[in-house]
Amino acid sequence: MTLSFIIPLYNCEAYVADCLNGIYGSEVDERDFEVIIVNDGSKDNGPMVCQAFANEHSNLHLISQENQGASAARNAGLNVAKGEFVWFVDADDKLVPHFFIKMVDVMKHDSTTELFCFNHYRVFKDRTDTCIDYAEEKTIDGIQFYSGNASGFLWNKIYRRELISSTRFLAGTKNLEDAYFNLKVIPKAINIRCLTDIGYYYNNTNQASTSKDQSLRNLVKLNQDSLTIHWAIAKDIAQCNDKQRASIYKEMLNKSIAGHLYSLMRFYSPGYLRRNINKYRTAGFYPVPKTSHQRTNKFLLLANRKTLFVLFTRLYKLLT
């Protein structure tokens, strides 16, 4: 079998039929792929929608588990996947059918590529933007991938399952889990094909998604996941004997902490920001070292001055 789709499902009744129609509407031979949907304790009728598709398509496998988060759901899918390649798709998104058709043929005749990367559409209520992460077709390795402006998403990549091997998502996390998974997997790759094709529709209209949910409960969880992932990367750095990979880990850690500080400034209280800075300082991660990204470094000129940064955040809250 050429390809395994792995789709976590949680309260996506309104979107999952479009997602599956995008796959099956391509009319790719169903012997060439399987669709693994992991129902992560959905409370709506999404699983019933999927079961209806399963009744019509023998290559669709619906797995159900108690709610454990997308990371655990993807792990469950990986544990049973049989395809030579894996494509992680979100239940509220869609793939581009003609790209799927093309890639099945490409994968059948490509014995060396370990990872395919491609571009995507970002769908808003009033428009659809074209997002170009890969402006030229080229073959690179995992170290070169991270020397550029690496895209940390899962869904704009197709992974050879052998590259993933026994690597799994950090269970229980739903923030930065994709970037961390990629950080564990991609640096090992020798052959990565960057394609200029647009292969995916990312849905930016689902207000119930993790990235859109601004409830206190979700914000607390996102913050805790950021700390969990950052501590995990730090542990990987300490255990890594490869200088190039360790350098990639350090760069990613510094960029990600900077991103976390920016989110704390925008969405959390000044007191919450201060407490997290103290945690980073105690761990030796603050002040945050310079990165290769100029815009990030400009932000760090402020963020690395704790008293000024907290004061700025107070003013920001008053003015917004």
From TrEMBL:
This is Glycosyltransferase 2-like domain-containing protein. GO terms for molecular function: hexosyltransferase activity. It comes from Prevotella micans F0438. InterPro entries: Glyco_trans_2-like, Nucleotide-diphossugar_trans. Keywords: Glycosyltransferase, Transferase. It comes from the Bacteria. Residues 4-128 form the Glycosyltransferase 2-like domain. The keyword Acetylation does not apply. PANTHER family: GLYCOSYLTRANSFERASE (PTHR22916), GLYCOSYLTRANSFERASE EPSH-RELATED (PTHR22916:SF51). The keyword Transferase applies. It holds the Pfam family Glycos_transf_2. SUPFAM superfamilies: Nucleotide-diphospho-sugar transferases.
